[in-house]
Design a protein that fits this description.
Elements (H helix, E strand, L loop, with lengths): L9 H7 L4 H28 L2 H17 L3 H15 L3 H27 L2
């Protein structure tokens, strides 16, 4: 489908830190530490059907991903946030596995980058 977002716009992320790779690596490590608890909170909220919490955590994840140009995660988190605002449980149930997949791809991309010297 044509609204497929790239997993990671690395050049865009590097531009944000003015080309400082060490700074980018630090941000990626912070992302890896911060995002896992956020995602598990989001899962719990989605399973409970708590649309307010789903909205809150998807909004937070959207922002964190946007800061690092994690476009696919940002895009899906925004859709999830909208589904929560609409209280559309079916929609967010459909989006959660997609978000997980995009998130794993993003983490893989980050970790690949972090392992380069």
């Amino acid at each position: 489908n044509d609204n497929e977002q790239p997993v990671w716009d690395k050049d865009g992320a590097l531009k944000r830190v003015k080309g400082k790779e060490d700074r980018l690596k630090m941000l990626l490590e912070m992302f890896n530490n911060d995002i896992t608890p956020l995602l598990s909170e989001l899962h719990q909220a989605a399973e409970k059907g708590d649309s307010e919490q789903v909205r809150h955590f998807s909004h937070t994840i959207k922002g964190v991903a946007a800061n690092l140009n994690g476009l696919a995660v940002q895009h899906l988190a925004a859709e999830l946030e909208q589904a929560a605002i609409n209280n559309d449980v079916q929609q967010w149930t459909r989006l959660m596995p997609e978000l997980n997949t995009a998130f794993q791809q993003l983490q893989n991309a980050f970790n690949t980058y972090l392992c380069q010297d």
